[in-house]
Amino acid sequence: MPAAVRVIDMYAILRNTTITLCAVAALYGLIHFFSTALRDPRFLDGWILTAGMAVQLLFHIRKKLPVSPLGKAATWLKVHVYLGYVVTAVFLIHTSFSWPETWLELALWTLFLIVVLSGVVGSYLTSSVPGKLQQRYPEPVDFQQIPAARLNLFREVDALVLEAVSPQGSSEISEFYANRLRSYFRKPQNIRAHLRGSRQPLEQICSEIADLERRANSASRKILLSLRKLVVAKYDLDHQYTKQGLLHSWLLVHVPATYSLIVLSILHVAVVYAYSSGVR
Amino acid sequence: MPIRLGSGDMKLLHVVKKLRPFSRRSPETPRLKRETISWWVAVFTAGVLMLAVGYAADTRLFMPGPITSAHSTLGKCSDCHSGVSAGKFSWVHAIFAPANPDKDSSSCLTCHKMGEGAKQPHGMEVAKLDAYMRKIRSEATGKPLPIASRVRKAVLPVDSTFRDGVFCATCHKEHQGENIPLKAMADAQCHTCHSVQFDSFNSDHPKFANYPFRRRTRINFDHSSHFKKHFPEWKTKKANSGETPGICADCHTASPENGHMSVKPFATSCSACHVGQIVGVERATGPKGIALLSVPGIDVATLSEKLVLIGNWPDEAEGEMGPLMKLLIGRTAEGKKVLEATKDLDLLDLTTATPEQIVQVEKLAWEVKGLFHALANSGTADVMKQLDSGGEMAVGEDLLRNLNASMPRDVLVGALREWLPNLAEEIEQKSESKQAATPVVSVTASSSDAPASIAIDEIRVAQAEVSTSQRGDVVIPRQKPARQNSVGPVVIGQSERWRVDAFGRLIKGNRLPEEDEDDEETSGQPDDTDDETPEEAAEDSDDQASDETEEVAADSDADSEASEQPASDVAQIELDTDAETWTQFGGWYRQDYSILYKPTGHADPFMKAWLEFSAGRFSKAEGNLAASVFNELTGKDAQGQCTKCHSVDATKDEKRLMKWTPSSIVTRESLFTKFNHEPHLGVATEKGCLTCHKMSGAKGYQDTYKGNDPDRFVSNFAPVKKETCASCHGKEQVRQDCLLCHKYHVNGIVTPILQTRIPDK
């Protein structure tokens, strides 16, 4: 990435962070002002919190509408992320910066924490993983197409190995495939190594193929060369699967937790108004 | 060959587009999967909540935060939240029902009692608060309001919010934690309503206005004169050394519970010098006791001349009725009327009185007798109950008890035996004559040597057969000398068909029933009474006295026996000391024709009761009997000298209010300021109390008490200045917030005692 682009990004981050902090300070001042006017600030900051969560939810709706006149998805994402920090601050004000002590409080706290933490992790992954994948794979495979691509590779390597199993051919390749590579091509493999960014499993397989090559004839060497390429391709596919999977998996926490949080929040608001003394 | 990640043949991957899907099922996108999971999670959450509501013991499960530990014993949410009932799902209805802060506050007030005006600002009645507000507004006039306050007032107006009151939840926010200070208030919160606003005490808090003196001291104690005149040796004295105080703490002490500097009790501080004034030891002239009951002196001779008869009346009586007696006479409308009619008359000289005045005097005499009879017959409490005006003026049991100071019956009976020996009979016959609506002839039992007279009221007897022409036929007995034990009914005139008894009643027939039994006693004929020996007379009188005692009040045998003791015997005892001197420790005694009470000491219940009673009924209106009593008891030479120290305030309705106790934490109720002396005692300079309380040296302290306006006063001490407080409370780490010196709930909060039943076993 060019250095100039990085500077602009830093400026945007600085600007957005400043806006966020100012918004938090302004809201804190407003709530404090409200509380000193002999009102119950918990209603004010509660509704600010609710409004913030509603705006966050709009992002979720916006994502369901790929073609929408409501602005770019990237802009929505930025608003979602920074507003998330503001909402978190309001949440802490609403709870008077105290730990949860009742069951409902504990449930609300836990879900909010899950949503926030998963959001923070997702925010990091969303900002870092796609760029790296783009850098490594100029034309990355769509996450939904990866299983099909894996199947294709599996069939191709299957056919290649069948070719090697001929009267003229050696049985070493087919045995190596059956014992070592078949499971490798069949399912996503080495997820931990991909998460760590390690290439050790790939080097191990390639080393074993190299051993075979030393003993193979020229026909077999040609097959082994193709096999090596397919092994590397599968390793790349698994790498993409792992990384793109990360981008999707945090949402499996973030979104359901948000749904659950909404249900609890509705109950919380209902209970608060049911038992309200009327001083707001 | 080194392998580089990402070096795989991408073309191989591109063929996936041509491939069939991995599964025969339609591919489920991650987003769709996520949505499905999310919805299921939401449904699961809702289900769990429904189960929780259904199976939980109560709705406390859903509390938005824990309640304070002090309230944690409250069992149900509905104990405080008036909008919901105890049912598990009752709160669902309450979501849409309008909140009722007034009712919720009432729930708080069941435990935290605050009296009237609890929901008004400062828990103060609106009228009282208005007075304070006017004062504060006048201070605020011309001072610009801080910008923050202006904004707050514009954005969040207070007046409309608190139109219906300031409810508990306005300041006390529950469900914020077990240990949060529910009573905490920020200065800004006070400023929400207040017109005078400032940043801190040290900077621009208004200067103190004559603090802490709002009024004259309740106890008239002139520090200045005591130090200069009465305690000349105080400078050389040590603490607690004898009668003279050496240090402030000899008379003052800080109450440990609230830090109020109080005055030590009379017995500790004042008794050594002032108790003699109370019990009358130092009184040179006049009676040392105050007369409750008296037989007033009446010009009996003139009444006799005018043929007005009032029954037996001690001609030696020369005194006047005291104000207390008059008040008792005036307990009835008739009594009041009579008193009013005779107020300017010289009862001891009726020679110039008009016939109408004579009639009033006659009535007065019967009112006096009626009072004595009622007191002897029904008891003092019953008579004094008739003083009860009801309402605020109601006379309670305690006051009744003290108004007569538990006067022994024998004091009264003994006195009546001497003064009005035939009282019961006279009253009975008087009563009968009224009921019979027969003409009444008044009889005057005159002095021993004056002949009894008969006067037949021409108007009254006009209808009777006893005409003026018959007067000559009426045998006028020479009545027995007006000794205290003179005989009862005396027939003073009779005809063949009618006779006139001692009370002027016309009775058909010419014999009284008693005459059948004892002609001699009741014939009324001039007999040998004059020739009766003293022993015989005494014997007669003994019999009479015994009968009288039995009639006055049925009593125990013991009492009867005691009262049968011949009065003359007691009277014949030669005593070296008079009754007043004998009653050196105070109490009831009889002197001349009065029953007096001598104060027993400080806080005498009789004096206190009469002062309070008359103060509460005081009026400047002419003829106010209570005012006469009050003036009598508060005069310069009044017995007990109560008002020498205890000040008297005038109330708004011109009544009087006795100030029995010095300033206390109770009297400081309804004040916005509070001060705890105790933490300051350790940080005072070497000047001690004088660090804050400097002697003013101003003259005129005593003049303050000549009037009854407590707000017009001169203090012995200079007011405490704000700078004195600010010398410490302007520094860092020393509190200077509003609630340090001011209180919101000016009338305090009382927690009612538990209604605990006494255990059966």
If you had to describe this structure to a student in words, what would you say it looks like?
The complex is a heterodimer of chains A (280) and B (761). Chain A is mostly helical and 280 residues long. Chain A has two domains: 3-137, no CATH class; 143-243. Chain A is built from nine helices and no strands. In chain A, helix 5 packs antiparallel against helix 9. The relative contact order of chain A is 0.10. Mean pLDDT of chain A is 87; it is low at 1-6. In chain B, strand 12 (648-650) and strand 13 form a beta hairpin. Chain B is built from 34 helices and 13 strands. By secondary structure, chain B is mainly alpha-helical. Chain B is 38% helix and 6% strand. Chain B folds into four domains: 30-62; 69-204, no CATH class; 212-289 and 599-720, no CATH class; 290-572, no CATH class. A three-stranded antiparallel sheet of chain B has the order 3-11-10. Chain B has a three-stranded mixed sheet with strand order 4-5-6. The radius of gyration of chain B is 42 Å and the shape is elongated. The chains are: A mainly alpha (280), B mainly alpha (761). Chains A and B meet through helix 1, helix 2, helix 4, helix 5 and helix 8 of A and helix 1, helix 2, helix 3, helix 4 and helix 6 of B.
